[in-house]
Amino acid sequence: FSPSVLGTREHWDAAYERELQTFQDIGDTGEIWFGEESMVRIIRWLEKHKVPLDSSVLDIGTGNGVLLVELAKSGYMNLTGIDYSPSAIQLSEKVREKEGMSNIKLKVEDFLAPSAELSGFDICIDKGTFDAISLDPSDAVGKRKLYVGSLGRVLKPEGFFLITSCNWTKEELLNEFREGFEILEELPTPKFCFGGRIGNSVTALVFQRK
């Protein structure tokens, strides 16, 4: 990928500072990455596989925290969201407060250098964070490797990793996560047709830690 400001912390700090101000002004929670259907897809998968409601769930790069709110509304009780942008965590705290979901835990954490207490999760979810890391102008390849290493540390053996991406194909993601993870399922995503070829603009996969 071409390096992009979308891969920099400065970009996300500024973006979430704007969203925080907008929320304080008019109560708008901001953008939902990949739209609402991406959240529905994740929750449906968890419900279909009867993932217990007390399973520990980590949302990597939680942003405004709306996915965690939707998980809480679906009955999940052990929810944690992390983001390296303090403004994102401030925003997600305000969204949590507005929705009355005091049991959601939120922390400023850089997933590429996670604290020791960030471990033992049953489920890890990523909607766009791996995409953003892949666009980092400084050593994106090294950072992707750090990401996979961190995932192996925070996710329990046999835990599930649900990733939604608009930058990576299924085959590319299988290659990125080949060490320590195996594919369980590809989730259906919207298809598009261009020049007679059908493709997916979004890839959603479920991996299991070996």
Describe this structure in words.
There is one protein chain. This protein has 210 residues and is of the alpha/beta class. The chain has one domain: Vaccinia Virus protein VP39 (Rossmann fold, 3-Layer(aba) Sandwich). It contains seven helices and nine strands, in the order H-H-E-H-E-H-E-E-H-H-E-H-E-E-E-E. A hairpin with a 2-residue loop joins strand 7 (191-194) and strand 8. The two termini are 29 Å apart. It catalyses: L-lysyl-[protein] + 3 S-adenosyl-L-methionine = N(6),N(6),N(6)-trimethyl-L-lysyl-[protein] + 3 S-adenosyl-L-homocysteine + 3 H(+). Residues 56-185 form the Methyltransferase domain.
Summed up, what is this model?
With 210 residues, the protein is an alpha/beta fold.
Give the CATH H-level superfamily: Vaccinia Virus protein VP39
Assigned CATH architecture: 3-Layer(aba) Sandwich
CATH fold-level assignment = Rossmann fold
Strand content: 25-35%
CA radius of gyration is 16 Å
End-to-end gap: 29 Å
Number of domains: 1
Number of E strands: 9
Quick one: biggest sheet? Answer: 7 strands, mixed
Mean pLDDT: 88
String of helices and strands = HHEHEHEEHHEHEEEE
CATH class bucket: Alpha Beta
Which regions contain 5 or more consecutive residues with pLDDT less than 50?
none
Spatial arrangement of strands, main beta sheet: 3-2-1-4-5-9-6
How does the overall form come out from the CA principal axes?
A: globular
Question: Helix/strand-derived class?
Answer: alpha/beta
Number of H- or I-type helical stretches: 7
The multimeric state of the shown protein is single chain
**Helix content bin:** 25-40%
